[in-house]
Amino acid sequence: MERAERIPFVKMTGSGNDFILVDNRNGLIKPEEGPLFAKKVCRRKLSVGADGLILIEKDGEVDFSWRFYNSDGSEAEMCGNGARCAARFAVLKGIVDSPSMTFRTLAGLIKAEVAGERVRVQIPELHGLKLNIDLRLDENRTAKVHFVNSGVPHVVWILDTKEELEKVDVVGLGRRIRFHENFSPAGTNANFIWVQDRQSVVIRTYERGVEDETLACGTGSIAAAAITVALGLTDPPVSLVTRGGEILRVFFEYDDGRFENLFLEGPALVVYEGSLWDETVR
């Protein structure tokens, strides 16, 4: 995968979820190169380092499409924080000529609205909602969890106190849930939450593909908001306090098990931009 030319990129963060964004409309990074390229460029200390790689591609029907890769090289259907960063990147780089846009992901078409540093994205319909699952973790422990697919699969475990949330083993329990046979073969993300009041939830997330706790997860925040509303614990819109301290807001209408007009809103910030040298990504 040696290259004669350097690859321009922008490093962005969405509430602590960080991404490398590349305008790939010229096809410089081929589809078959994407997984290995993502693994190499997302390595921290050895390359740029990020939770994921976003490649912006040409699309004949909407403003653009993306290919999204987790840091382990796996391709994900959707990423809420990444979607916000992609939308702002498209505005900053002149890929779109309006702050309103539509782009294609593996989870479907995403509509976005950019207002300075804040971006609101419309999320495709949720599906697969299952409440009150008794999940056997080992011979001595069973957890009551909930599940929904908000573009990617998410398990939500509701804890009773803020102290429990602070002490929970997000990585250990998250990994056990992520690879649990109930969610095979694709696996799932795992969210641990505490309901602060009827409008706000504190959340910690173990992300599939990153295989670690991240500072924020947009689709996880959507899942947590939807599940707490379905359980009668919160009312929309719901504010999610992420591990990085940022607040994500989830807007939707809920009626008899149906979620409609679902939006995720939060910051999408530029960290820096530069050019990738071949010697750290080949």
**What is the C-alpha radius of gyration, as a whole number of Å?**
18 Å
Query: What share of residues are in beta strands?
Result: 35-45%
Mean pLDDT: 95
Q: Would you identify the CATH architecture of the largest domain?
A: Roll
Order of helices and strands: EEHEEHEEEEEEHHEEEHEEEE
Q: How large is the count of helical segments?
A: 5
What is the end-to-end distance? 5 Å
Q: Could you list the spans in which at least 5 consecutive residues all have pLDDT below 50? A: none
CATH superfamily of the largest domain: Diaminopimelate Epimerase, Chain A, domain 1
Count of individual domains? 2
- Assign a percent range to the helix content: 10-25%
CATH top level class name of the largest domain: Alpha Beta
Note the overall shape: globular
The description of the largest β-sheet is: 17 strands, mixed
CATH topology of the largest domain: Diaminopimelate Epimerase, Chain A, domain 1
Structural class: alpha+beta
Q: What is the number of beta strands?
A: 17
Subcellular location: Cytoplasm
Binding site for substrate: 17, 70, 80-81, 189, 207-208, 218-219
Family: Belongs to the diaminopimelate epimerase family.
Protein name: Diaminopimelate epimerase
Labels describing this entry:
282 residues, alpha+beta, Diaminopimelate Epimerase, Chain A, domain 1, 17-stranded mixed beta sheet, 17 strands, lysine biosynthesis
Report on the structure:
- This protein has helices at residues 34-41, 80-92, 162-167, 170-178, 218-230, and strands at 7-14, 17-23, 52-57, 64-70, 100-105, 108-115, 118-122, 127-138, 141-149, 153-159, 189-197, 200-207, 212-214, 238-241, 247-255, 258-267, 269-276.
- The protein is of the alpha+beta class and 282 residues long.
- It has two domains: 7-124 and 269-280, Diaminopimelate Epimerase, Chain A, domain 1 (Roll), CATH 3.10.310; 127-264, Diaminopimelate Epimerase, Chain A, domain 1 (Roll), CATH 3.10.310.
- It has a 17-stranded mixed β-sheet that branches.
- The longest helix is centred in the N-terminal third of the chain and has 13 residues, at 80-92.
- It is globular, with a radius of gyration of 18 Å.
